[in-house]
Amino acid sequence: MSNIMPNYEKAMSIENSRKIVQALAMKGGTATFSEIERESSVKGSLLAHHLNRLQSLKVVEREVKGTYRLAYKTPLCYIFDEAAKMKIAYFGLLGRRESRLEPETAVALKLLQRDGVNSTLTYVVTSPEALNEWKELKLPYQWILCYEEEIIDIDAVRNKVTPQLENLLKNHVVIMDCTSATKPATIAYYELAQTYCIPLIYVYEETKKLKWLISKETIKRRFVIP
Fold it and tell me: Are 95 and 126 spatial neighbours (Cβ–Cβ below 8 Å)?
């Protein structure tokens, strides 16, 4: 996990900084100084001041001279309604098969589609044993394997997935799903979603209903965004 996380709450506490962040999100996460001026209506030296402030809070990075980017596109491109324009990555869990005919991951992806969320990438954490039980389906996912002793350890799951998760957050809107696998894995996902302000879902297996544990509205309230 990064030593210094973006301080979104402090960044959003000042209106001009919030306007700049929103302008960057509206441009897909990267924009020139002049584009930010135009989108945010924050001008000249005042804009430069707030860009410096947002860099010090680790929310914005300077790419090259005159060009800035959001350090992470999740959650900012998500809460400012730019998710439809972004590459969305699903980051879930897959447990043992038991009596299931359909992987819980596949159920979640269908339910997200009904909510208008279409992922272009699917990353799933599972154990080699669980993966072997589903092997005949040839599931088209990117797998992150946690061995049996890891998948039952909160810290081990968190340490295993964090590097890949951070890479995805930089360039995608990430939706996490804590439904499947073990309770420690579920807890690890919930902690990561809270730390990085990531939208988080849970699927009720019997009723096939999707619950947003961390929704767009939840994140906006956390950042005190009107």
Answer: yes
For the stretch 78-131, pLDDT in tens is 998 766 667 799 999 999 888 888 999 999 999 999 988 889 999 999 999 999
Phi, psi (rounded to 5 degrees) for 203: -115, 125
Rounded distance between C-alpha atoms, residue 47 and residue 158, angstroms: 37
**How far apart, in whole angstroms, are the C-alpha atoms of residue 147 and residue 143?**
12
The pLDDT, as a whole number, for residue 195 is 93
> Which domains, from first to last, does the chain contain?
8-71 (1.10.10.10), 83-215 (3.40.50.10770)
Q: How far apart are CA 33 and CA 48, in angstroms?
A: 8
* Of 152, 102, 100, the residue nearest 126 (C-alpha): 152
> Token match 């096939």: residue?
208
User: Any idea what DSSP says for residue 96?
Assistant: -
Q: Which two tokens stand for residue 196?
A: 């990085």
User: Rounded CA gap, 42 and 48, in Å?
Assistant: 9
Query: 129 and 149 in contact (C-beta within 8 Å)?
Result: no
Backbone angles phi, psi at 85, to 5 degrees: -90, -10
Rg (CA), the chain: 19
Q: Which residues contact 204 (CB under 8 A, 6 or more apart)?
A: 210, 211
Residue with tokens 């044993």: 129
- pTM given for the model: 0.91
User: By C-alpha distance, which of 64, 125, 52, 123 is closest to 91?
Assistant: 123
